[in-house]
Amino acid sequence: MGLEEGEVIQHSMMTKSIERAQKKVEENNFGIRKRLLEYDDVMSAQREVIYKRRKHALSGSRLKLDIANILYDTCEEIVINNKATNDYKNFEFEIIGNFSISSPIDENEFTEAPEIESINKLYETLSKHYISKIESSAALAFPVIKDVFERPGNKFERIVVPFTDGVKTLNVVTNLEKAYNSAGKHLVEDFERNITLALIDEAWKTHLRKMDELKQSVQLAVHEQKDPLLIYKFESFELFKSMINGLNREVLSFLFKGGLPSQSETKIQEAKRAVAPKGYRTSKDESLNTEELAQRNRSAGASAGQRQNTVVETIVRDQPKIGRNDKVVVKNVVTGETKTLKFKQAEPLINKGEWVISN
Predict the structure, then answer these.
(1) What's the CA angle centered on 222, arms 218 and 227, to 5 degrees?
(2) Which pLDDT does position 271 carry in this prediction?
């Protein structure tokens, strides 16, 4: 066209072509961003539900109400699903499997009574059983807490108490003084908060992985001339509903079955600080159980005469100490090659494992 290198092209046809191309690219990018935002809106709605439950578990202010709602929803689901199939045996099995109690509703009542009556009766029975269970757990743990708190020289602020449902064991961190002043009730509250929070986090992480897999798989719906977003919304709702139902049952199962393991007094430990003070580093576990503390107290009472009988062991080197500037002969373990170097030069080779000191 007779244009020189670097010369600006000024022509209406060329300018309009560039503008049309740029407009198409920007419209395409906007559509992609809008589509991604619609996918993210689905996740945002689910995050609000989960994060609200996590917040309640962290603060503990509405956790009792959440547990009551979870219990009622689970009772409703069990009754409705089994009444739809008229399967009393499965209904009885679910009550025993999830709550470790026999069914308060017999077969005739299950068949003839309305759903709402069965739901309310099951909920009331399970609520009374749970209240009785947590009161007994507090009474069982209090003697151990009292022993640790009233022991001379006690400096524990928080303790770790293990709880198990026979399959899983989770450690519950609680304030020792509050647990002592409340006769163990504060420990039970921390048990509810810790268990609920741990199971929510575990279920949510698994759900996020499934949502990522779902987002990739629905893209194949384009080949069937279907909108992937609509399928994603429907499938994600079903996936989230299934996750919530499973989470509710898992939380209730652990709360109803969880308790102090046998000989738990030997397993109660001081809770370690999450962050060590600046300038310090912990090299070993500093928590003490009650047996170790008693052993330490007995050891502290040893007499001065016993201390004098302590045997002092002298460590003798098998080889003389090598100075950094001393010359050594090193040998390659593969080729057999030997070199004479100062020890500070040979040390990097020795650390790699390729050379050894031959003299």
Answers:
(1) 75
(2) 54
| Contact call for residues 157 and 175 (beta carbons, < 8 A) | yes
| CATH 1.10.3060.10 segments of the chain | 31-154+183-258
Return the SS3 of 269.
strand
Question: Angle at CA 41, nearest 5°, toward 38 and 45?
Answer: 155
Pairing of strands 269-270, 158-164: antiparallel
The string of pLDDT tens digits covering residues 114-123 is 889 999 999 9
Task: State how far the alpha carbon of 38 is from the alpha carbons of 34, 42, 187, 341, in Å.
Answer: 6, 7, 44, 67
- Mapped onto helix, strand or coil, the DSSP state of residue 175 is strand
CB 261 within 8 A of CB 162: yes
pLDDT at 140: 85
CA atoms of 194 and 63, how far apart (whole Å): 11
Give me 263's structure tokens.
Answer: 């000989």
This prediction has a pTM of 0.62
Residue 335 near residue 314, CB atoms below 8 Å: no
Mean per-residue pLDDT, 255-261 = 82
Domain 31-154+183-258 has CATH 1.10.3060.10: yes
From the list 138, 179, 131, 133, the residue with the least C-alpha distance to 156 is: 179
Host H or E run for residue 111: helix 107-112
Taking alpha carbons only, the member of 264, 309, 11 closest to residue 140 is: 264
Taken in order 31, 34, 36, 38, is the CA torsion positive or negative? negative
Chain-centre distance of CA 29, in angstroms? 38
Tokens standing for residue 11: 């022509």
Six-digit token string for 124: 């009331």
Tell me which residue of 252, 258, 256 sits closest to 172, measured CA to CA: 258
195-236 pLDDT, tens digit per residue, is 889 899 999 999 999 988 888 888 777 677 777 888 888 888
pLDDT band at 25 (very low <50, low <70, confident <90, very high): confident
Distance CA 291, CA 289 (A): 6
| Cα 251 to Cα 242: distance, rounded to the nearest angstrom | 14
Backbone φ/ψ region at 153: left (φ over 0), alpha (ψ -120 to 50), beta: left
- d(CA 295, CA 66) in angstroms, rounded, equals 44
